Amino acid sequence: MTKEETVHRNQKISGANAFMDQGYITERDIPAMMDREFAQKFVLDVQDELQLRSLDVQVVLQTFNYYMGSGCIIYNPTVLDEDAAREALRLALGYRK
Questions:
Q1: How much is the pTM?
Q2: Contact 31, 39 (CB under 8 A)
Q3: Of 10, 16, 35, 82, which residue is least crowded by CB atoms under 10 Å?
């Protein structure tokens, strides 16, 4: 992350909305998540946004490595297990197996 980039309110809202709609957020939803430091701050802000909405939802950030590159996904482990999260991220990023 360059120059202590912060997570903007619109990004938090978009992330929380995507999380509630899909059960996960990928780099395709929020391109700034390609930066690992941003993604680590972003997951905390999404958790805060969900708590503001009075939702008690567990949020997990995970990085998966593929042959074509790596990617980050934020997901709800009660909705998706690790394998399903890996597959959802692979499909979202357009990677082949």
A1: 0.86
A2: no
A3: 10
